[in-house]
Amino acid sequence: MSENQAHRPPDWCTGKRQQILDGARKVFAELGYERASVDLIASRTGVSKATLYNHFDDKSALFLACFEQGSHEMRSDLEALFSETSDDLESALQAVGERLLAKFLSREAVALYRSALEAFRLPEIGKMLYERGARVTHELIAAALSRWAARGLLRVDDPYYAAVQFVNLCHGDVMMRLHLGVLQEASPEDVRGTVRRAVQTFLRAFRP
After folding, report:
1. What is the maximum span of the chain, computed from C-alpha positions, in angstroms?
2. Reported pTM
3. CATH class of this structure's domain 67-206
4. From CA 106, how far away is CA 38, in angstroms rounded?
5. Per residue in 14-37, pLDDT tens?
6. Contacts of 98 (CB under 8 A, 6+ apart)
């Protein structure tokens, strides 16, 4: 399988499948994985259980599809940002970091993350969430870092590891505080400040 094929998102299409995904994301975010029954999701999305099962094998498959769609949306956003970048690394990384962190800190993302903690007891679900979510993001950022390194703008021996470090720096402690309920909402100023410090630290480590 080629790299493009490996990263190609499922056919989200329109109509019933998208209708189910939209409704399921809201239900999982509101109630968590355990309390979100297939009956309730079908009712909230206005489809029959038979229709839902025509598109998804079970609740865990639907849950994974919700995460995969979010990952596809993030990938599309980042690809658009990287296509607009120039040699101004600080501004480019700031824009990417702010987009990442704003997505990670959205109410839906935080709620779905908490739902994922419930679902991790299911076989293979943790690995699948990582492969379809974080890994895809890391690989996309790593590709951009490689391009900048080839132009002499960065000194990066392991682009993938550097991408992981950049994302972790962008998380700061604000993401953990939100996930643990210590912080109810992150302001745009929190996001900008956290990412600005992350970018400065990253460039001190990787700029020639």
Report:
1. 59
2. 0.77
3. mainly alpha
4. 25
5. 588 999 999 999 998 888 888 899
6. 191, 192, 195
